[in-house]
Amino acid sequence: MKYKRLTKEQLEELHQEFATFLATQSIDKNEWDKIKVKTPEVAEQELDVFSDLIWENVLTNAHYLEHFSKNHIFLFHCQENHIDSMVIKSLVTDVDFLQKSGMEWLSDNLFTDTVEMLTGKKGYDGDRNTSIFNLIKEGAILSDGQLYLQINSIIQ
Question: How far is CA 107 from its chain centroid?
Answer without folding.
Answer: 25
